[in-house]
Amino acid sequence: MARSALHEVSDTGAFMRTASTFRNFISRDLNSQFPAESGRYHLYISYACPWASRCLAYLKIKGLEKAITFTGVEKTFCKGLYQPSVLRLVNCVFAICSKVGFQALSFTIVTKFVCSLIIQSVKPIWARTKESDEHMGWIFPASDTEEPGAEPDPLIGAKSIRDLYEFASTNYSGKYTVPVLWDKKLRTIVNNESSEIIRMLNTEFNDIAENAAIDLYPPEMRDQIEETNEWVYLGINNGVYRCGFATKQGPYEEAARQLYEALDKCEEILGKQRYICGNRLTEADIRLFVTIIRFDEGWVPFSTLDTRKEVLIFPVGRRGLILGNEVYAVHFKCNKKLLREYLNLFNYLKDIYQIPGMSSTVNMQQIKRHYYGSHPSINRYGIIPLGPDINYSSPHDRERFPA
Ligand SMILES: N[C@@H](CCC(=O)N[C@@H](CS)C(=O)NCC(=O)O)C(=O)O
């Protein structure tokens, strides 16, 4: 079983997501195994992760922050840069030479050439979840001042999300993903599947939720929400991963085609109504939002050099731009069109972002630092691109539709 999304690739080079393992349900029935009690459950999230951010959005929208505590993990699997000791030695010799006035010696052509070779061997250090193996994944910071939005584990003193899974199940062999919904009383994982966690948060805590009246999965709209979730998941939520993690051109192009078909469909629908399922905010909007808010900043410049097999995957869009600027050709994969080029979708994105509580679930710095700094087989040096720094709080035009 794959222990990381980077290994969920079929022989044909397509990204194949495996199902989540912990699938228990919290119930409003106080006699059930996991009753909806205030203070009993804890949500582990990463601000970088769209699936975890769905759950966080529900905590905010439903007014459940007092009832369910949460902790964020560190943004990135990359812990800094490794400098070989020989490079440190050369730096030291340089410093001494320039101090004692031998600048000429330290900058001879030969010295520069040797140094450039050594500098190329500077590598990012990728954090491992255990000393005993190579697995990389979510870890907790050592102190709560190390990084805004990330704290040490307050419950069992776990050093990594992996520790939580291994604490909950001694024979667990899958991925160590966020979100994790944790039961403080039974000291175990209740559920690690965001699509199910949001359903529980929507209804089961209504006796203690501050905004119990908000129903994001109303009975009369369920068929339509399910139908929308299906194509949005395939083409967009999971579609961006199918583009980013593909290791062969064919599966990448198939994923990119489906992604843009789905985005075009959203654009058309949102040209006629305020929300994706009609004139009412639903679960389908939250699920769509968490992916499209990461689109222009998070997904676009994934490096296309896959160092696992040293294959080049060429992005399907922007052929003109590729000819004019080859760096973009290497780095842009979901680049047929930027999100902000879709007028309805972009205004809709701002509309959802401006719902009270939603902007606090979006930490763009963590999103960028995580994606670029956590997948060495995709972005070998962990370089984080600058920009584009979009202002999602600026005015939108969505009030033109009834709501
Ligand atoms: N099906 C899960 C997917 C969660 C998921 O893939 N989370 C990613 C972060 S965006 C993760 O934790 N990946 C860790 C890894 O692959 O090692 C859900 O929706 O809850």
Automatic annotation (TrEMBL):
Pfam families: GST_C_2, GST_N_2. Residues 218-371 form the GST C-terminal domain. This is GST C-terminal domain-containing protein. Gene3D superfamilies: 1.20.1050.10, Glutaredoxin (3.40.30.10). It comes from Acer yangbiense. GO terms for molecular function: glutathione transferase activity. It comes from the Eukaryota. GO terms for cellular component: cytoplasm.
